[in-house]
């Protein structure tokens, strides 16, 4: 395992790209929590905070594929720089509105503009790995680290926002996120690999990556995986409510995240002989089994312990999805394809929240909700199995030549 990550680290631009990835993506995960705290402080309403947060999330999910298409069309540096400038103005407008006339409508509008203008750093970085690293095994390790950066951002972002908000106020937390995001994105877009990234000749027509059946399969899997997480978060909260211990949900989520980190480390370090499409089915099946076991947790220690193997399959699923998107995306649409993956995950999480809310209203126990979450992984495995041929690797010229020789 150490050798795999050593080989990755020896690539010239890898340390810079990973570091800048942290700077550009931790605030991306943190700012939403900061906006919620800021809205509650300025309006005194949790309902208003929900509206403002939802406006930003929906706008981001809708805007990121558009940004991805612009990157594929005009290159990374120009597209990211323009988006960053607009995003900085949007953050300034949000903070001004919050401290002048904190009306829900105005805050929601500015939050939507912030979400709509967020630069697609994650999608751009994933598209860049294929040019920076030619070796497929090392590139898989890079994608594993990329997925783990996201896990770290999900954990560290809210913690940092909480600390800054407690000491200086949520306005400073939101402003800090904006400043770090601005600096990190400009740093990323100024790196030589990003500046040298040249858009390929675009294929796929107006539909872009959505014209690829394989991409549709992967987006369907992303929606279902996002729904699993949406239900799981509510199920953890329900378990905490049943035990009258609010800390239980956070502990279980942290254990789930730790399992994901371990899974990503293991997956990224191993050479794999099987095809990515086959691996995805196996990973999803393991994911379904791991999450289903949570339903059998008799107490809090068991729930936290079982959350580690349940989360083990999350990062490998994300990495495998990255690999397959790179394979299935039509030429010239790679960044947009990765961006659509983000949108699909957001949409799936919203679906999971709706399902979980319906289950709570129906009086469902946490065990049933865990089983329902596992059902989404099982359904995703079925989708991946049905789409096996669509996810299969296209034959290389060398393969074609060998087949011709055998036929003759």
TrEMBL record:
SUPFAM superfamilies: MFS general substrate transporter. Keywords: Membrane, Transmembrane, Transmembrane helix. InterPro entries: MFS, MFS_trans_sf. The chain crosses the membrane at residues 46-68, 80-101, 107-129, 141-166, 172-191, 212-236, 248-268, 280-297, 303-325, 337-360, 366-386. PANTHER family: MAJOR FACILITATOR SUPERFAMILY (MFS) PROFILE DOMAIN-CONTAINING PROTEIN, PTHR23542. This is MFS transporter.
């Amino acid at each position: 395992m150490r050798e795999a990550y050593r080989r990755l680290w020896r690539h010239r631009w890898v340390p810079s790209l990973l570091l800048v990835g942290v700077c550009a993506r931790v605030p991306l995960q943190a700012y939403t929590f900061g906006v919620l705290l800021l809205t509650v402080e300025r309006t005194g309403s949790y309902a208003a905070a929900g509206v403002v947060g939802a406006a930003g999330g929906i706008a981001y999910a809708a805007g990121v594929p558009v940004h991805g298409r612009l990157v594929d069309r005009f290159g990374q540096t120009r597209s990211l720089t323009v988006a960053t400038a607009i995003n900085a103005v949007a953050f300034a407008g949000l903070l001004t509105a919050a401290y002048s006339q904190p009306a829900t409508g105005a805050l929601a509008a500015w939050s939507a503009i912030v979400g709509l203008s967020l630069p697609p750093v994650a999608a751009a970085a994933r598209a860049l790995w294929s040019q920076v690293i030619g070796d497929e095994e090392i590139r898989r390790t890079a994608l594993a680290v990329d997925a783990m950066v996201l896990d770290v951002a999900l954990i560290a972002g809210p913690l940092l926002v909480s600390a800054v908000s407690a000491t200086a106020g949520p306005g400073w937390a939101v402003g800090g996120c904006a400043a770090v995001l601005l600096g990190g994105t400009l740093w990323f877009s100024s790196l030589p690999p990003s500046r040298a990234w040249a858009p390929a000749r675009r294929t796929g027509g107006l539909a872009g990556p959505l014209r690829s059946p394989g991409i549709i399969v992967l987006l369907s899997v992303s929606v279902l995986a996002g729904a699993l997480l949406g239900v799981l978060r509510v199920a953890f909260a329900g378990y905490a409510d049943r035990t009258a211990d609010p800390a239980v949900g956070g502990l279980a989520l942290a254990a789930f995240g730790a399992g994901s980190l371990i899974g990503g480390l293991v997956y990224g370090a191993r050479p794999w002989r099987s095809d990515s499409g086959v691996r995805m089915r196996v990973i999803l099946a393991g994911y379904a089994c791991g999450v289903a076991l949570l339903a059998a947790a008799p107490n809090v220690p068991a729930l936290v312990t079982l959350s580690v193997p349940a989360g083990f399959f999350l990062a490998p699923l994300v990495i495998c999805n990255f690999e397959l998107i790179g394979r299935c995306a039509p030429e010239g649409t790679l960044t947009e394809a990765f961006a659509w993956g983000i949108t699909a995950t957001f949409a799936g999480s919203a679906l999971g929240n709706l399902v979980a809310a319906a289950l709570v209203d129906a009086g469902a126990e946490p065990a049933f909700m865990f089983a329902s979450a596992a059902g989404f992984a099982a359904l995703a495995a079925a989708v991946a199995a049905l789409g096996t041929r669509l996810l299969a690797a296209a034959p290389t010229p060398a393969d074609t030549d060998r087949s011709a020789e055998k036929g003759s």
